[in-house]
């Protein structure tokens, strides 16, 4: 069996580069040779044991590459074609998919609901921080990369861009809305860009890292708030003349940011939650108006599938959003352990890391 290099989860606090068999594919699958991938905050949750995955699993869920081999029933693609696949790879056939929730794809059973069933790469099947990855249900998930777009230009589409945009989409941001985005990491920055594209005219980014606040302004933030400068809730209420915001997007996954997002909403406002939480959340009675304030708390998981990827790459190709500032560091796959060390500890101003085999 031919071998490849892959980043493998060994145990808590250990993801290592090792040899692994190149995946076999079935009739509905494709084998993609990875040309560029990246690290995600969710991968750090896996590394720290905050999100459980099987030992020996290849990590990573943001593939950009070239079709190496196609399953016998896959039509409309050719070997050697440049493609991406979303971090979420819905089958298109489950109850979840057919009711419009492809991100929650998975076994249809009567034994309970497991969230994020559509997230397979680096979760329930081997992922793409490797030289090759098997893409399941290739007809539903492979999307050709338009001519003229580089790997790095489309690298954010499989997850970060799709997730961030979905924060604004799920909350149905309207023309003229006010939006607060809590935490300007890569997902929060994409949420800023998504809110602008949806028509928000007041977009307030919350962080304390100057470089991220600068990028937020480039992507459409009209104001930035440094949480070290005082009470964030009071700062945002002052910027909105006491009204509060129409939509608050929580993009970090902590109790503190969740509560603050809830407290800055206008009556009837919407909290759009994108963070991955590692402990139980508490909903403060007063902030929630004892359940009587007409507030909405919404969650979403990165929409996937080839049509979603096509639309996101169309946004990139139109030059309406430039996410190139998010890629701050580049590593070879051979050095992925060093990339994890840098990314997990948020050193050297890192935002996103491009990994190339």
UniProtKB/TrEMBL annotation:
The keyword Protease does not apply. One of its GO terms (molecular function) is oxidoreductase activity, acting on the CH-OH group of donors, NAD or NADP as acceptor. Its cofactor is Zn(2+). It holds the Pfam family ADH_zinc_N. The keyword Coiled coil does not apply. Signal peptide: none annotated. Keywords: Metal-binding, Oxidoreductase, Zinc. Residues 12-355 form the Enoyl reductase (ER) domain. Belongs to the zinc-containing alcohol dehydrogenase family. This is NAD(P)-dependent alcohol dehydrogenase. It comes from Pseudomonas morbosilactucae.
């Amino acid at each position: 069996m031919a071998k490849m290099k892959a980043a493998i989860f060994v145990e808590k606090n250990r993801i290592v580069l090792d040899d692994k068999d190149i995946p076999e594919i079935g009739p509905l699958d494709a084998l993609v040779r990875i040309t560029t991938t990246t690290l995600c905050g969710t991968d750090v949750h896996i590394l720290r044991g905050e999100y459980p995955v099987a030992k020996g699993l290849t990590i990573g869920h943001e593939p950009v590459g070239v079709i190496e081999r196609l399953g016998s029933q896959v039509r409309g693609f050719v070997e050697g074609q440049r493609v991406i696949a979303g971090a979420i790879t819905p089958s298109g056939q489950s109850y979840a998919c057919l009711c419009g929730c492809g991100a929650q794809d998975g076994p249809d059973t009567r034994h309970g609901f497991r969230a994020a069933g559509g997230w397979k790469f680096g979760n329930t099947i081997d992922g793409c921080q490797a030289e090759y990855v098997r893409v399941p249900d290739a007809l539903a998930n492979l999307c050709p990369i338009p001519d003229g777009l580089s790997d790095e230009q489309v690298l954010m589409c499989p997850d970060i861009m799709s997730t961030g945009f979905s924060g604004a989409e799920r909350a149905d941001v309207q023309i003229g809305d006010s939006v607060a985005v809590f935490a300007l990491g890569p997902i929060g920055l994409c949420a800023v860009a998504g809110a602008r594209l949806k028509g928000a005219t007041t977009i307030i980014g919350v962080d304390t890292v100057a470089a991220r606040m600068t990028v937020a302004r480039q992507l459409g933030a009209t104001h930035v708030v440094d949480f070290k400068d005082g009470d964030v809730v009071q700062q945002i209420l002052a910027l909105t003349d006491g009204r509060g915001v129409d939509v608050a997007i929580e993009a970090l996954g902590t109790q503190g940011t969740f509560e603050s997002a809830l407290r800055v909403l206008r009556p009837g406002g919407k909290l759009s939650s994108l963070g991955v939480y590692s402990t139980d959340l508490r909903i403060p009675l007063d902030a929630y108006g004892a359940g009587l304030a007409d507030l909405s708390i919404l969650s979403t998981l990165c929409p996937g599938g080839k049509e979603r990827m096509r639309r996101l790459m169309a946004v990139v190709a139109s030059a309406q959003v430039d996410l190139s500032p998010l890629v701050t560091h580049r590593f070879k796959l051979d050095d992925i352990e060093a990339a994890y060390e840098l990314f997990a500890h948020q050193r050297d101003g890192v935002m996103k890391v491009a990994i190339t085999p």
